[in-house]
Design the sequence.
């Protein structure tokens, strides 16, 4: 879950050990590494996805294309997957909220969301997102109206998912660039909502 970092995979443990060794020998600065990872995790990668979402919000033809063939629509903006997987776009509505998980490992759309967050790879999230999606959403601070259903999508090596959050009210006439600032990484996984204009300041 968001605050549970106690579960570390064998690969993560090896990476941690290698980082410690390189730090000890003076080859890397841990703070600099953390800053680079944070940038890719929260800024560079998710900005690609935010561009896709903002374009879908402002261009009905693009939104229709994204719904029919997300892989081609996303590639048209220059965001190409190196793994060759297909993409599917899941549009949130008042009736349905979409949540993405990878129950077997941690398949994730790097080309549009950057590096996956630690919690996405954690066993508690991977297990509970399927069994108790509303409980998981509540832990992320998302409480849905009673009439809104939750649909969980399980990513695979062949198929990755991008959630298109609902466009916040009060944003008529906003440019794509301005709208991009309302789209968070979590809103494109489904563990968050788009930021309201008031919250964005």
Sequence:
């Amino acid at each position: 879950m968001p605050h549970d970092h106690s579960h570390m995979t064998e690969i993560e443990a090896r990476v941690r050990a290698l980082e410690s060794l390189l730090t000890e020998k003076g080859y890397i600065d841990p703070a600099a590494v953390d800053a680079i990872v944070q940038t890719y995790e929260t800024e560079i990668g998710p900005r690609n996805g935010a561009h896709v979402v903002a374009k879908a919000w402002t261009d009905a033809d693009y939104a229709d294309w994204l719904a029919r063939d997300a892989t081609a629509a996303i590639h048209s903006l220059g965001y190409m997957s190196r793994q060759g997987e297909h993409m599917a776009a899941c549009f949130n509505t008042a009736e349905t909220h979409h949540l993405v998980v990878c129950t077997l490992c941690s398949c994730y759309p790097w080309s549009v969301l950057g590096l996956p967050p630690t919690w996405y790879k954690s066993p508690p999230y991977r297990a509970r997102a399927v069994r108790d999606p509303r409980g998981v959403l509540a832990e992320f601070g998302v409480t849905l109206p009673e009439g809104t259903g939750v649909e969980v999508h399980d990513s695979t090596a062949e198929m990755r998912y991008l959630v298109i959050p609902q466009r916040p009210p009060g944003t008529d006439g906003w440019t794509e660039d301005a709208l991009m600032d309302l789209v968070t990484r979590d809103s494109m996984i489904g563990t968050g909502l788009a930021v309201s204009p008031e919250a964005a300041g």
The chain has one domain: 10-200. The mean pLDDT is 89. The radius of gyration is 18 Å.
